[in-house]
Amino acid sequence: MNATPSRRSILKGAALGAAAIAGSFRVFDFEAAAAPAARGIFGYGVASGDPLGTAVVIWTRATPPCEGRQIATPGSGLGRPIFVRWEVARDEAFRHVVKRGGVLTSAASDHTVKVDVTGLQPYTRYYYRFHAEGETSPVGRTQTAPDDGDRLHALRFGLVSCSNYTGGYFAAYRALGQRTDLDFILHLGDYFYEYGNGADRSGPPELIGIRDHNPATETLDLTAYRLRHALHKADPDLALAHRQHPFITIFDDHEVADNAWDSGAVNHSPDTEGSFLARRKVAYQAYLEWMPFRLPEQRVVPHRGTRFFRSFSFGPLGDLSVLESRQNRTAQVDVPPYTTRGGGFIPIGTPEVDAQLNDPARHMIEPEQMTWLKNSGRTKPWHLIGNQVVLSPLMIPGPLLNLPPTMTLINSDQWDGYRAQQADLVNHIAGGANNVVVLTGDIHSSWAVEIPSKAGADYTPVGVEFVCPSVTSDGFYELARARVPAGTPAEVVVAATRQITGTLAGRNPWIKYLDGIGHGYALIDVTPDRVQADFHHTPVPTSAQPDPRVVQSVTTSHAASWQTLAGSRKVSPAGGPVGARSDEPA
User: Fold this and answer.
1) 132, 83 contact by CB (below 8 A)
2) Per the omega criterion (within 30 degrees of 0), is the bond before 215 cis?
3) Phi-psi region for residue 569, left (φ > 0), alpha (ψ -120 to 50) or beta?
4) Which residues of 213-241 are buried (b: 16+ CB within 10 A; e: fewer)?
5) Could you tell me which of 78, 286, 293, 492 has the fewest CB atoms within 10 Å of its CB?
6) Residue 307 burial (CB count, 10 A)
7) Is the residue at 455 inside a domain?
8) Is residue 15 part of a domain?
9) SS3 label, residue 515
10) How sure is the predictor about 1, in pLDDT bands with cuts at 50, 70 and 90?
11) Coil, strand or helix: which one is 243?
12) Residue 337's pLDDT is what?
């Protein structure tokens, strides 16, 4: 979900002075992100990701032992090379080790360690750990994908996005880490936010000075991006989720800068912040260092720049295609005075706007990636598509943005801002023989949507889109709260939020479920007969507890369940949350 351009420009201007002051030096204060560097070699924990039928990536950060007063904090460039041994076993006690090896890491990779462990068995639970200089890491738990020839297995995973550190404690990650029934966690982007702690800070004011970004200013260089990744790896709730489950991840915009496109971003000022492409390059470098991400083969699939989009097979049940929609997208439509370069809410229905929106030369994903997507997932019953921003059309009534009731707007940073390619993809989904479920993040709220053939009351459903809530980032409730006087009871804000989401759903009849209050995650369960989405949310705010995000012990609970039945291309309420899995990995 994107801040309005006017707000971003105000915040950016106010933050420039602080950024300039801090730009000439950088302090490592051993708080938050830097503290684990002093806790031992493996203070940043372990993680795994990108599970295939016979392979999985394992990850850690190996901080060299302290030499004198220097500690090799993330991004500092300090620390000698260190040799790290790794083991993968079938049991947590490591009596049955199946793979082992060693790797040398150094400051060149920020002392991160990433190993693609191959030769494993499909749909099998494994445990892994690392050793270096007399120390042993925590034990990680992972598993390979249920891609086991013609054998049909269960598939269940968590769906998350948008985890702003200053936005609150990561209750969703803790809840996911406590589950034992997941194959993996799919993270659709905004793993962290590039903002600082000043005028550009986002989140509850109660957490100022308690849960702050590190570095304190906006991330602009390699040091800063590495340190921001380290901040998140140091969070105990996210560390638990990483330790317990493999992640499949893809970045959206905030891992670089808000509302990014192929050559810029709304939150990037070349005059004061230098080259955007240089900034993006170091952001991608830090992402590949600090995430358990397997960079796909670059030569076999046509693409532009670096190929990050990739696919995963789950045997005869289905495939997952993970899109990447920032690196090569055309700049968002620019129609002053309603928006500035980089996207925002724009009124539709005028020749000038519609001509830009319908221009077939404009694209969100490069044409080569679209060709790859159309050729993917065609032979399986279910094709799941991991997607950063909302695909289904969203018509926004003017009054919701304090504009005339005759005006209808769209968010030009979503697929609505790229209508020709949006229509191309929707038509492809409509013409396919299998069931397509699009899995989306970004908008900080929970949705169950029938992808319409066209944006009208007489639409035909062609597929389904499930949208997960944010982990912590501000959503509709927080936007409604910002509109009312300070001290307004939380119950009044809740009612106002439901009025907003009800108005949106009424204007867009293909939206069958929309909750804009709870933060949390969605659980996706796939069987041959249906795909079900269980939404798990933090508590609804009350006057006694106005913002659950500030309570470290708060948890999530089941809020709603929606499903799509095979062949229906529609969504319908499910009878309740999912039960036990039909089978378990070996």
Assistant:
1) yes
2) yes
3) left
4) bbbbbbbbbbbbbbbbbbbbbbbebbbbb
5) 492
6) 21
7) yes
8) no
9) strand
10) low
11) helix
12) 66
Whether omega for the bond prior to residue 337 falls within 30 degrees of 0, making it cis, is yes
Cα separation, 430 vs 416, whole angstroms: 18
Handedness of CA 159, 161, 163, 168 (dihedral sign): negative
DSSP string, 90-105: SSTT-SSEEEEEEEEE
Residues 6+ apart with CB under 8 A from 180: 244
Question: Which CATH number goes with the domain that contains 128?
Answer: 2.60.40.380
SS3 content of the chain, % helix, strand, coil (to 5): 25, 25, 50
Domain end among 117, 144, 171: 144
Length of the chain: 586
Nearest to 449 by CA among 358, 356, 564: 564
Give the range among 76-85, 265-274, 401-410 with minimum mean pLDDT.
Answer: 401-410
Residue 18 reports pLDDT greater than 60: no
Q: Which domain holds residue 554?
A: 145-573
Helix (H, G, I), strand (E, B) or coil at 176: helix
What's the rounded Cα separation, in Å, for the pair 101 and 177? 27
CATH of the domain at 269: 3.60.21.70
DSSP 8-state class, residue 259: T
The whole-number pLDDT of residue 338 equals 62
Q: Tell me if 581 is assigned to some domain.
A: no
In this structure, the answer to whether residues 138 and 270 fall within a common structural domain is no
Q: Which of 85, 99, 92 is nearest to 131 (CA)?
A: 85
Identify whether the C-beta of residue 259 lies closer than 8 Å to the C-beta of residue 253. Answer: yes
Are 477 and 494 in contact by the 8 Å Cβ rule? The answer is yes
Ranges assigned E (strand) in 220-336: 247-249, 260-261, 264-265, 310-313, 318-322
Is the domain of 263 the same as that of 324? yes
**Are residues 180 and 128 part of one domain?**
no
Q: Which residues contact residue 254 at a Cβ distance below 8 angstroms, ignoring those fewer than 6 apart?
A: 189, 190, 192, 193, 194
Task: Report d(CA 357, CA 563) in Å as an integer.
Answer: 32
Q: Which of 123, 247, 245 is nearest to 180 (CA)?
A: 245
Q: How many domains does the chain have?
A: 2
Residues 339 and 454 in one domain: yes
Q: Are residues 70 and 218 in the same domain?
A: no
Q: Are residues 178 and 136 in the same domain?
A: no
Q: Are residues 333 and 416 in the same domain?
A: yes
Structure tokens at 51: 């599970």
- Using CA atoms, how far apart are residues 429 and 61, in angstroms rounded to an integer? 41
Predicted confidence (pLDDT) per residue in 333-361, tens digit: 987 666 555 668 899 988 989 999 999 99
Q: Which of 35, 27, 31, 476 is nearest to 211 (CA)?
A: 31
Q: Which of 144, 168, 184 is the last residue of a domain?
A: 144
Instruction: Check whether residue 63 and residue 175 sit in a common domain.
Output: no
Residue 387 to residue 396: CA distance in whole angstroms: 21
pTM of the model: 0.94
- Please indicate, yes or no, if residue 18 is contained in any of the structural domains: no
